[in-house]
Amino acid sequence: xxxxxxxxxxxxxxxxxxxxxxxxxxxxxxxxxxxxxxxxxxxxxxxxxxxxxxxxxxxxxxxxxxxxxxxxxxxxxxxxxxxxxxxxxxxxxxxxxxxxxxxxxxxxxxxxxxxxxxxxxxxxxxxxxxxxxxxxxxxxxxxxxxxxxxxxxxxxxxxxxxxxxxxxxxxxxxxxxxxxxxxxxxxxxxxxxxxxxxxxxxxxxxxxxxxxxxxxxxxxxxxxxxxxxxxxxxxxxxxxxxxxxxxxxxxxxxxxxxxxxxxxxxxxxxxxxxxxxxxxxxxxxxxxxxxxxxxxxxxxxxxxxxxxxxxxxxxxxxxxxxxxxxxxxxxxxxxxxxxxxxxxxxxxxxxxxxxxxxxxxxxxxxxxxxxxxxxxxxxxxxxxxxxxxxxxxxxxxxxxxxxxxxxxxxxxxxxxxxxxxxxxxxxxxxxxxxxxxxxxxxxxxxxxxxxxxxxxxxxxxxxxxxxxxxxxxxxxxxxxxxxxxxxxxxxxxxxxxxxxxxxxxxxxxxxxxxxxxxxxxxxxxxxxxxxxxxxxxxxxxxxxxxxxxxxxxxxxxxxxxxxxxxxxxxxxxxxxxxxxxxxxxxxxxxxxxxxxxxxxxxxxxxxxxxxxxxxxxxxxxxxxxxxxxxxxxxxxxxxxxxxxxxxxxxxxxxxxxxxxxxxxxxxxxxxxxxxxxxxxxxxxxxxxxxxxxxxxxxxxxxxxxxxxxxxxxxxxxxxxxxxxxxxxxxxxxxxxxxxxxxxxxxxxxxxxxxxxxxxxxxxxxxxxxxxxxxxxxxxxxxxxxxxxxxxxxxxxxxxxxxxxxxxxxxxxxxxxxxxxxxxxxxxxxxxxxxxxxxxxxxxxxxxxxxxxxxxxxxxxxxxxxxxxxxxxxxxxxxxxxxxxxxxxxxxxxxxxxxxxxxxxxxxxxxxxxxxxxxxxxxxxxxxxxxxxxxxxxxxxxxxxxxxxxxxxxxxxxxxxxxxxxxxxxxxxxxxxxxxxxxxx
Amino acid sequence: xxxxxxxxxxxxxxxxxxxxxxxxxxxxxxxxxxxxxxxxxxxxxxxxxxxxxxxxxxxxxxxxxxxxxxxxxxxxxxxxxxxxxxxxxxxxxxxxxxxxxxxxxxxxxxxxxxxxx
Lengths: 984, 117
Ligand SMILES: [Zn+2]
What we know:
The structure holds two protein chains of two kinds.
Chain A: E1 5-10, E2 13-18, H1 23-29, E3 36-37, E4 44-45, E5 58-61, E6 67-71, E7 82-85, H2 99-102, H3 111-115, H4 122-134, E8 149-160, H5 164-173, E9 180-183, H6 192-195, E10 199-202, E11 205-206, H7 207-220, E12 224-227, E13 230-236, E14 240-246, E15 260-272, E16 276-278, E17 291-293, H8 294-304, E18 313-316, H9 322-330, E19 337-340, H10 349-357, E20 362-364, E21 367-372, E22 379-383, E23 389-393, E24 397-400, E25 403-405, H11 408-412, E26 417-420, E27 425-428, E28 435-437, H12 447-457, E29 471-473, E30 499-501, E31 506-507, H13 508-516, H14 522-529, H15 542-553, H16 557-560, H17 574-578, H18 595-600, E32 603-608, E33 611-617, H19 625-638, E34 641-644, E35 649-654, H20 658-665, E36 677-684, E37 690-700, E38 703-708, H21 713-727, E39 734-737, E40 743-748, H22 752-759, E41 775-780, E42 783-788, E43 797-802, H23 804-816, E44 824-825, H24 828-838, H25 878-881, E45 886-893, E46 905-907, E47 922-932, E48 937-945, H26 947-950, E49 954-958, E50 964-970
Parallel strand pairs in A: 1-7, 8-9, 8-15, 9-12, 15-28, 17-24, 18-19, 18-24, 19-20, 34-44
Antiparallel strand pairs in A: 1-2, 3-4, 5-6, 5-7, 10-11, 10-29, 13-14, 14-15, 16-25, 21-22, 22-23, 26-27, 30-31, 32-33, 34-40, 35-38, 35-39, 36-37, 37-38, 40-43, 41-42, 42-43, 45-48, 45-50, 46-47, 46-49, 47-48, 49-50
Chain B: E1 3-6, E2 10-13, E3 18-22, H1 36-44, E4 52-58, E5 66-72, E6 77-83
Antiparallel strand pairs in B: 1-2, 3-4, 4-5, 5-6
Bound molecules: zinc ion.
């Protein structure tokens, strides 16, 4: 044992432990037994096990971002660690929540479903806050920046578990051509060799020596990679496993290095050598601090050199407790009593010899009825073979109810189980993937048979090493067990309980009640009682529950079946799953070439997909968003404004069949369109619904450039690729995204022609030379730019496409050339306002995937003479042509001082008198609404049933506080209905 | 959680691909000539079997090529991949393929880890 003391704090008090101690080992070393309070009843709980299966001893690590629900039996201490107990208030010793224990009748099985039914409002105001206060585990962790990473492996063989069986398998593979990954969840190899004194020697040398040699041999082989402190949590379909590595075992967190690594492993073969878990036996008050599993007690002796108690009572139904007896007596300690439910004649002679030699009180054919004590065990009651109760004073009780092969991963892989009648346990039967189970996980509890098993199961691999291993065993070789899930107990006070699930506070009485209430299928019973639904997933108790239920139902246990084991094997930190994909790495940010200019001009940004777009520009510190948007929108129609449209999706389409293809992708007809012109175009899905819109520019019949909405750029390109590759592979056509090849400026307003002429003084922008919807390429400095005359505001407008590296200079030139016009930079909010004044739609705001071009009165955009385009056939489906579909209309409030809210309902009735008894007929909803500075009242667009026919009528729009606003239904075109301004 | 062998790039992680639904649902040659019902079946109706399924995939974060695959939907095993336009392998080629994970019925989820007697 190391003499270096390590100091840590538990609930404010300082304790010393040894290097390598877990929190539990260190606390036991200091004789601390009370660790926490239970989930529902707030009963005192202690340390039940010595490993990952621990249901009780969950703690919060304060100095690690308040990390909750950490198993004290796994987490290793380090200098300065600060640990707190959980689920107690105000303190561990005086916990007010323990009143729940007395109120327990209302907390019985299904209590969540039955108790909190009413009266109305009680759930939200009374029950939920109460339950959140008193039930539950730790407190959530504080926000922190994880440095966890993911690592990928591609191997021939993974060996899960570096215990005896795993090491034998690894030894077979050492130095061969197989690429092997050996994964061990603890910081040392050896498993049972380290935990118990069951094996005297291997190949005539002490087990420790053999272990050291074997590890060296494996380490020196160049084909085996070793991962320690790594827990395999998941065994997916198609030979894919996930493992979680803790990089900081026994060390404080390092702020520079990853603390957790999530390993994603693809393998050809999986060798499961992940051992077994001891299970408990239920008796009265089997949850008291001081009750511990026997093999766990032995592990504390052997692995940590901690003696949790010098004279415990041992209670067993099987032969395995011999080694605990031996370990204790070897150390010179004498158990208070040895209670075995088996008949003396069935108990192994080695055990009987030890009991006799050390004169240990021996109770064959007897069982523990229950135990007493307030905060820990003080006394146990033994029901002797003559059915008499004998009480013994003791502070600790070691229990062994047998062993379960740790089949969690095996069943995750979809392997099938069968019930072993001799060992009373489920074990692997049929594999589903390329899985091999070795040792106790396969249901083999015999060391002598282990070697044969390894040789046989690995015989499918070629060129493996010969193994020569000879074991000398301490104690009985054959494992022997007698069935017992729960002992008979006397009726005691309300405080007396017999638990089947320690973490979720489920009692065996709950199981019986659930079956009585009809929950006799094991999956239903699990959910109704919450048995084995804690973070430990009932590792020490779920098979016991099956045993008890099978007895109640008078069925064979294999008929009852197990519940489904789902990944992960043990809780995985979210930070490990997220890996590096957090904060600035969560999603890329895309910025336009003008971003720095926007920042300097006090732009407030909006996220549009991954893009950062100026939402509006703050002219002064105290200008509000509304003021800014009104100012920008007014200025555009007064003189001119400029928008950074670089985020607009741009796709180049080329090929001999480009025209045919574009005709198929969009509703419009492009055949008769002249080169160097553009057209506002609609893209539909095959269901006839509007998918996207944009401008299609025809350079010639074999070359087009189309624009898409910012958010749909990727999906429109994917949609085009899909059709060109799958439906029309005969068409010669190629698509390429050129979104980032050009910065785009949208200049708009009555003065934009003058401004354009000043910026590009050698280009003729007259109506004759540069008509609406025409474009051309021009030389600019030593590069080429494209100018398109188009408008999304209803004003005279131009779009300028310029290579990004020239963008900022050119953008600035616009402002220098137009000082006398107060050219205003505007953001997306103003753009939305201006287009709404004109009734132009935004795909995704005024449409929602259920809207056709006909619903939008965009019939003129449909090339009716075209034989086919995507979605065309759907436009004549009976549901699409029906009269009263929801259609786009404009709304103007009758009282022009009022504003309309987006998303509100459009209805026919004026009054919504409370309480609303009859359903109100909803005609539709408001899709866009803005206050227009140019009209000095609100304008709105709405999708309403039979909208077309309702134009000219008066309807009502609901408001937040259940009033209504009277509105006139109008054509959705509020300003300059004859479109004279953009033809200027 | 599986890998897919792109016919153009080779075996890659599933996360690089996107699923494109049932394969071999041809777009009607002359949509105007068919009934609403026939057209709607093309647009909206797809098979959803437990077991062998012919489906389309696209190597989104790779070569961006579309291709076909035969997948066992109850085990996520990709049994075959082939290029667009190639003749699909006949169903009988997969008659020895295990249809569902151990213990599961042919229809429904099952979730049995112990074989029902
Ligand atoms: Zn590919």
